[in-house]
Design brief:
Order of helices and strands: HHEEHHEH
Strand content: 5-15%
Number of domains: 1
Number of helices: 5
Number of strands: 3
Largest sheet: 3 strands, antiparallel
Helix content: 55-70%
Strand order of the largest sheet: 1-2-3
Shape: globular
Distance between the termini: 33 Å
Oligomer: single chain
Structural class: mainly alpha
């Protein structure tokens, strides 16, 4: 492999999390815009207990810390930046994807707080009846966190096996 193509692969590998985060923010913002535009008249039944229902959350998970949107936003930006920085240092593609999912979800919700004009609130629109209303950014954060946990557990198990084998 030539030096140029190897350096391109290295650069591409380092920015996987950034690409994933950007994609998450874009899809999240599109779906939130659609929710605001189409759910003003009331909820739309999807199936079973699931509805699209417009809500605004000025807190974070489960509406905790309601009214502290500015502080939550600053913390989210710092955490997202740290995750993206760390992602350039890890070798695992799936770990980079997971970090990008979490960072993208955090930045998607920060975008709402800063740019949507709902008093620092985040647009939530997926309602299940048995879970607080959420959005795709929230789903991305949870999915990324679960992937990080799975990857970390598998890595720890693999490390222990290799130590026992030596």
């Amino acid at each position: 492999m030539s030096g140029t193509s190897q350096s391109r692969e290295t650069i591409a590998g380092k920015v996987v999390a950034l690409y994933v985060a950007a994609l998450v923010v874009a899809i999240d913002q599109i779906t939130k815009s659609l929710a605001v535009a189409n759910l003003q008249a009331g909820p739309i039944h999807i199936f079973g207990p699931f509805y699209f229902r417009l809500e605004f959350n000025s807190g974070f998970a489960f509406s905790l810390a309601t009214g502290y949107g500015s502080i939550i936003g600053v913390v989210a930006v710092v955490v997202a930046a740290a995750l993206l920085f760390y992602s350039a240092k890890t070798e695992s593609l799936w770990f980079k994807v997971a970090l990008g999912l979490v960072a993208g979800g955090a930045l998607g919700n920060v975008s709402d707080r800063v740019f949507r004009g709902h008093g620092g609130a985040v647009v939530d629109f997926i309602y299940s009846g048995f879970w607080p209303t959420f959005n795709l950014a929230d789903t991305s954060i949870v999915t990324g966190a679960v992937l990080i946990a799975i990857i970390s557990i598998r890595s720890e198990r693999s490390s222990r096996r290799s130590q026992l084998g030596s």
